[in-house]
Design brief:
Elements lengths: L19 E6 L10 H11 L1 E6 L7 H8 L5 E5 L14 H8 L4 E10 L8 H17 L3 E6 L2 H10 L7 E3 L6 H9 L2 E5 L9 H9 L5 E3 L21 H12 L3 H15 L4
Helix pairs in contact: 3-4, 4-5, 8-9
């Protein structure tokens, strides 16, 4: 860890053999903001050794990066979430490339398409998605893709813009197994969140059961989507352990196997840091 950073205790002896990576969290969001050292301490105690702090607007990009910069085990992204039509300013390829060149920036995004929350003329959303893919390809860094109720257009634009050249991750995945297979064919990992612990998430359970473990990542999307047994509370990276445990149960695998594989996949994804 960088000199001057407060010491974070390591995992307990019983956790020492299992290490996890939270591939998607928002440490600057309400509920976690201003609590970085406490959050990192609980991460360490749970055996969560890596995390990716994800950017959703250019206005928060400096703050997102500042949180991770002192910590060797944290990395960040830069991008504009597809839900935000009225952003302070739109991203250009050039600005994303400039910001994304920082060595602590592991990925571009989150980006993508969301037809669930927004309706009407969404050409602006599709163009924003294309800009992010072009920036990622220029940088040679992976993408973090959010897709909800827009699988056909998401995959089409990924193909048209050659997203497979950099690959990335389909974050908080809730689409079908067929969509997962098409995304994997485009060089993307599939990341499952606390939704996989929800009783009625049958489609996510199906994907978890069928996923090849070398294409799987896990995340909290904290402070949202707290997993069972913490559902309804403010989520945090330490609780990614519950995501791994539920996947292990669904796949009939030891927890250590899921933890080891998803950590290795995260390291491949975030290889810049």
């Amino acid at each position: 860890m960088t000199s001057g950073t407060p010491s974070i205790p390591g995992p307990s002896p019983q956790q020492a053999e299992v290490a996890y990576a939270d591939s998607h969290c928002h440490l600057n969001y309400e509920g976690l903001a201003g609590q970085t050292e406490e959050v990192l301490r609980r991460m360490a105690q749970a055996g969560v050794r890596r995390a990716l702090n994800v950017c959703t607007t250019l206005e928060e990009a400096d703050q997102v990066l500042a949180i991770v910069r002192p910590h060797d085990h944290l990395v960040a992204s830069v991008g504009i979430h597809p839900d935000y039509e009225a952003v302070g300013r739109e991203a250009s390829v050039e600005e994303l490339v400039r910001r994304g060149a920082d060595p602590k920036i592991a990925a571009i995004g989150e980006t993508g398409l969301d037809y669930f929350r927004l309706k009407g003329d969404l050409d602006w959303q599709r163009e924003r998605f294309r800009v992010h893919i072009r920036a990622a390809r220029t940088l040679g860094k992976p993408l973090i893709i959010h897709t909800r109720d827009a699988p056909e257009d998401t995959l089409r634009i990924m193909r048209e813009e050659k997203a497979h050249e950099v690959g990335g991750v389909m974050h908080c995945f809730t689409e079908s197994w067929d969509v997962a297979q098409q995304a994997m064919a485009l060089n993307f990992f599939i990341s499952l969140s606390g939704i996989v612990t929800f009783k009625n998430a049958a489609q996510v359970h199906d994907v978890a059961e069928k996923m090849p473990i070398d294409r799987l990542m896990i995340e909290t999307d904290s402070p949202f989507l707290a997993p069972v047994p913490h559902r309804g509370k403010t989520n945090e990276p330490a609780w990614v352990v519950h995501v791994a445990q539920r996947i292990a149960d669904l796949k009939g695998l030891p927890l250590q196997t899921v933890a080891r594989a998803t950590m290795a996949n995260f390291e491949r994804f975030a290889s810049v840091a």
